[in-house]
Amino acid sequence: MAKMWEGRFSKALDQQADDFNSSIHFDCRMFRQDIKGSMAHAAMLSAQGIIPSADADTIIAELEKILADLESGKLAIDMTAEDIHMFVEAELTKRIGDIGKKLHTARSRNDQVALDVRLYLKEEAAGIVAMLKGLLEDILFQAEQHKNTIMPGYTHLQRAQPITFAHHLLAYGMMFTRDIGRIEDAVKRMNYSPLGSCALAGTTYPTNREMVAAKLGFDGITLNSIDGVSDRDFCVELLSAFATVMMHLSRFSEEVILWASWEFKFIELDDSYTTGSSIMPQKKNPDIAELVRGKTGRVYGDLMGMLTVLKGLPLAYNKDMQEDKESIFDAIDTVKQCLTVFPPMIRTMKPLPENMLRAAQKGFINATDLADYLTKKGEPFRSAYKTTGQIVAYCIANNKVLEEMTIAEYKEFDTQFEDDVFEAIDLRRCVESRISAGGTNQASADEQIKYIQKFI
Ligand code: ARG
Q: What is the average per-residue pLDDT within 157-163?
């Protein structure tokens, strides 16, 4: 495709350099945003008397048709164009002649691309927030059913204290509510229109940038034209929020993988979210969870790539910045792919409460409760802790658990032990008596569920 800027040059760009320079292969996905931005710009040019209103009407009507033709597939994007901005303008001029050439008055591709990316990211961010809310619903679906399902809670991946499966799942729920907050914060800061910054220094035309901003749903305009075209903080912030989403999905995936193993067997994954082995007939592999964990690396890479592209750039626009799009687009695509398969995998997984309980019964996870029992009898916590440690050592040496000790054996360690000790170390009691706010008791689970429901 002929270049808009070829007037200054005596020969064409080398073919391979042209391919290298072109961004149409990836920025073509912003055609809607580019056209909408151009329509708002044309309306402003006319309102300000910069171009005749009849010309603006022609431009806007034809842009509308181009958009419809692209949507319907009647018009294909010309992949030999330099980028989506050049394609739309060239197509417009092809259709309406010289009037089309007026569209680029008082703007530059530098502010245009900054605008298009913001518009695109705002939409995609809203879609991802909706997907995260879907995931929260699936977490609640499981949590509601497992408020009484006892499992071991871990620290250092060593059995630590009894918790409920609901409490564990709701911890992830809290993470995803914060992720939504982070995405929405990033969108708030990106919601200022850079259009009208022009190449970098503004323009001599009496533009009305606020009008364009309002038409496109922005909260206002960027206040410094150099910043308007050189800022990509909004990409970094959103990528960072996406990287955090992936980190949470990855931790969750890791647990799903562990829980689905024969060693744990806390859950059974639905057949539709597992795969078999080409050689081992017994295998049922948690590939989906593993891939989500693996794809986390990609999104971290996208964030690092973006930060690295930006780090040495002088103001204002540099062509390096064309690299912003592939990183952010890849991160969006990856997060969306993960959020398509991960939530139904969680909703359809089958928790196995008997196995969770069995695991909880073996690891002395009620030892803290035994120490608390003595403390409540008046023993200082440190002494109670020490006595309990001795009892645990005795149990290990005698191959038994706390529930299997006789009261006589308990009294050997401390005469204050009475029959009610067995009630105190009962796992269900241990869970229900963790009455502190945010603890693993049922009232807290109910409160967390209510909070997340309200959040959604
Ligand atoms: N395709 C370019 C990009 O994605 C558009 C901006 C081009 N501006 C320029 N001065 N060459 O960044």
A: 94
Residue 120 and residue 193: Cα distance in Å, rounded?
A: 13
Question: Does 277 score more than 80 pLDDT?
Answer: no
Terminal Cα distance for the chain, rounded: 48
Can you tell me the mean pLDDT for 127-139? Answer: 98
Say yes or no: CB of residue 266 within 6 Å of ligand 1. no
Structural domains of the chain in order of their starting residue, each with its CATH number: 17-105 (1.10.275.10), 110-147+163-203+222-352 (1.20.200.10), 359-441 (1.10.40.30)
Q: What average pLDDT does range 200-205 have in this prediction?
A: 98
Ligand 1 centroid–CA 128 distance in Å is 27
Span from the CA of 79 to the centroid of ligand 1 (angstroms)? 16
**Residues in contact with 238: Cβ distance below 8 Å, sequence separation at least 6, in sequence order:** 121, 125, 183, 186, 187, 190, 328, 331
- State yes or no: is 156 an active-site residue: yes
> Which is it for strands 158-164 and 220-221: parallel, antiparallel or unpaired?
unpaired
Q: List the residue whose alpha carbon is closest to atom 2 of ligand 1.
A: 322
pLDDT confidence of residue 96: 98
Residue among 53, 261, 272, 277 flagged as catalytic:
277
CB of 113 shorter than 6 A to ligand 1: yes
How many whole angstroms separate alpha carbon 420 and alpha carbon 68?
76
Q: Tell me what pLDDT residue 275 has.
A: 83
State yes or no: pLDDT of 420 exceeds 90: yes
The pTM of the whole model exceeds 0.85: yes
Q: How far apart are CA 144 and CA 241, in angstroms?
A: 28
CA of 303 to the centre of ligand 1 (A): 20
Q: 323-345: buried (b, 16+ CB within 10 Å) or exposed (e) per residue?
A: bbbbbbbbbbbbbeebbeebbbb
Please tell me if the CB atom of residue 107 comes closer than 6 angstroms to any atom of ligand 1: no
